[in-house]
Specification:
The chain is mainly alpha-helical. The protein has 15 helices and no strands.
Length: 343
């Protein structure tokens, strides 16, 4: 048998089994993956604090890590508190949004001169039945309890990872037989992913604050909650920006019943996402990840299909780790070149 065909077949079978294992084990693996990401964020923020002029360098490592962990816990607490406090209010405004949607549909039909058509009533009835605002909000908010349980599990895992980080590093050195090569590879992965996640968290906070100002200026309801969600969506490449613009714009249209405020919000949020995504992001990141845009989209699609929304958040960090690991060995370096943006 052709050796090349045999290797390709074995590789395909191995990848299929690995993907199947990741899919089946997602209830256990996803919280662990998010706990690892939270640990990376803490260490990344601690490294950023060390770079603060005059203040960061004198701080001890333990104090920097404590400050970074406190910031992350405060952000989680703020997000959960906003979700819980606005839950009843969201359910209360759902009927009003449905009525506004009906008015907008009627205006749209009048604009196209189809409101007098015989089948317009049936089309409108079927559309409203399939797009039930209250049902969508109920289904979304009903998972709050499971979300809180998942957050607690993730924080518990992350706490143990932070406490035993140094111990696992020493075990890794012993496992590698005293070789420093594997340890240096792990350190490089940790450094790049940690800085990436910390920068994305910082950019997400900036984008959330700017978006909150834009939404408050037009008077959008629940601006604080949407601002936190927009900051979190900044971790999802490409699709996160589209969602963070489209959803508040649609909600503005449903709230006000006309498109003037919605268009103003759409333009301001688009401008904010453009500045953060195309100016601040490249300036702060400096192209250090060097990932191909096509590879980012493919990894986003693959990990989203395996782990859902969680996979969308984890796609880029996982891909970065693979690139660094592949580039460290001569036999897999060509695969790393395929994933990067280099010629």
């Amino acid at each position: 048998m052709n050796q090349g065909l045999l290797k390709c077949t074995c590789a395909a079978v191995l990848v299929t089994l690995l993907a199947w294992g990741l899919y089946v084990g997602r209830p256990v693996l996803v919280p662990i993956a998010f706990a690892i990401i939270a640990t990376y964020v803490v260490f990344g923020l601690a490294n950023l604090l060390r770079r603060v002029p005059y203040l960061g360098a004198p701080l001890r490592d333990g104090l920097r890590h404590a400050i970074a962990a406190t910031l992350m816990l405060f952000t989680v607490y703020l997000s959960v508190d906003l979700l819980l406090s606005d839950r009843d209010r969201l359910m209360a405004v759902a009927p009003k949004y449905e009525a506004t949607l009906l008015v907008l549909l009627t205006k749209f039909a009048a604009l196209l001169h189809i409101e007098t058509e015989a089948n317009w009533a049936a089309i409108r009835r079927d559309l409203l039945a399939s797009v039930n605002v209250q049902a969508i909000m109920t289904a979304t908010l009903s998972s709050v309890s499971s979300l809180l349980a998942a957050i607690i599990v993730v924080l518990l895992y992350a706490t143990f990872f932070l406490i035993e980080h140094a111990k696992y590093r020493r075990k890794l050195v012993k496992f590698a037989g005293g070789s420093t090569r594997i340890v240096s590879i792990i350190d490089e992965i940790n450094s790049k992913i940690g800085i990436y996640l910390a920068m994305k968290a910082l950019l997400g906070a900036i984008l959330g604050i700017v978006s909150w100002i834009c939404m408050r200026l037009v008077g959008l309801e629940f601006a604080e909650l949407w601002a936190v969600l927009i900051g979190l969506l900044n971790f999802i490449p490409y699709a996160g920006s589209w969602i963070s613009v489209a959803v508040p714009t649609l909600l503005a249209a449903l709230q006000f019943g006309q498109w003037n405020a919605a268009l103003v919000l759409f333009m301001s949020l688009t401008l904010a996402n453009f500045v953060v995504g195309h100016l601040l992001d490249p300036w702060l990141m400096g192209g250090s990840l060097n990932l191909s845009p096509a590879i980012i989209l493919i990894s986003l699609a693959v990990w989203s299909s395996i782990w859902g929304i969680a996979g969308a958040f984890l796609a880029v960090p996982i891909t970065v780790g693979l690139v660094i690991a592949f580039s460290a060995f001569e036999s897999t370096r060509r695969f790393a070149v395929l994933l990067t943006n280099d010629d």
